[in-house]
Amino acid sequence: MRLLTMCFCATAFLGTATSSASVLRVAKTGDGSDGQSWETAYQTIGNALIASATGDQIWVKGDIYNEAIIMKPAVAVYGGFSGTESDAQFHLRNWVDNETIIDASGLNTHVVVGADHAVLDGFTVTNGRSISVYNGSGGGIYCFRVSPTINNCYIRNNLAGGYLNPWGGGIYIALSSPSISNCTFEQNTAASSFLGSGGAIFVWSATPTIEYSVIKNNTVFHSGSGLYIEDSQVTLRKCFIQDNRSDRAIVTVDSSLLLIDCSINNNSRGGLYSRNTRLEFVNCILATNDVPSDIFGKSGHGGAAYLFASDILFQNCTIAGNLVGNTGGGLYSDSSTVILINSLISNNSPDGMFIDQSEVAATWSNIQGGFFGAGNIDADPRFVDPDNGDYRLRRDSPCIDTGSTSGPSTDIRGLPRPVDIPGVGREGDGAFDMGAYEFQLADLPQPVTHAPDFLLYSIYWQRQDAQNETPFNETDFDRLNVIYDQQIDWADIFYSLRYRKNE
Question: What are the pLDDT digits (tens) for 227-244?
Fold first, then answer.
């Protein structure tokens, strides 16, 4: 996957050259003389960085650059140019169509070393091999005591393979506070002969913010195939963490972790392992994570999350379809404090929650197997299509309008909460839906309007309905189904028509 797409707030990262800063250009076709134009562009990013000063921008033409770079403080490096843009045409760059690749093949080092207040934007960072005995971390990007901004980057196929510290295949973050947005971390690995943590991302004693990003298909020898977090404060917002393998997608120790509007799905060794950590999940989905038995002593339990000596809040979360070999298909809590509000735990195997020496408080939630607490239910949530990852609620879900009267102002899609739709759920304003999705008017099934027969029937039905009559019967349903040669949920369609008629 090249990037999640350019739809993740791409325009937020567009800049322009300022009168006080220089724009240096990099293109393999340049003559390398001064970088002031595309014709005189430097032929390597490294040479442009050497020539740059604080506040400068470096514009890089789409191509493959076989090098490793060390960034400079307060210098912004942008990829995605076609090689024709003037200083006033920054907005024309396109890092998808003009893929700009920094490829460290054969160099056996980090691809990028960060710097304070530097910007790396619009690059593919690949084939880093950090295999030094004493500094084998950060195969793709290395951030030690520096806090760059990293936007619109595809960090793939990098290795942290040092003998003593193979940490952070995609990026190593320590004693720093970088900002990462609209990036994809894919097929990165952290592994040596007996160690390896943070297949995609390793965070130690740091405070990074990661948003609008995808972390997928990463591997690790030991801990945290997606992220390993220790002694840190980390915020993840609108991230997809999926299809990671060989250990839990997220491992967090002695830390604080906030996840907002995130999905942790389909990870082959489980979603999260937490030890002595304070966690808060808001509008998150933890689904279809699989934990076999007896892996490293912390598997076989807690498909979505294994919690040890931790404090955790789930606010409007959906925990569904997770599978374990032992107990705690959804959650496994050992010596922890767990609070669930307006959340869903459903269809996990073999059970929803397993509680061991923990304090668990659940309110206004749908809990598989049932759980004591105000407003709790135990019912089929009626997801739209869970087999294909669609955990929105159908209009007949018992989880609509049955949550509490307080919660986040938007759902996982950024759509407003709470929403009251006449005829759906409980009537009256103020009640939130359970789970990550708030049922919206747009979620109502749309009536079929392209068939003349159905149009005539619908007009007749609306006329008769005004007279409190019911013109349709099973014979009418059968006739319409024959017309469409398929089974249709006509009750949904008629409800939709009725709602629109009454608007």
Answer: 999 999 999 999 999 999
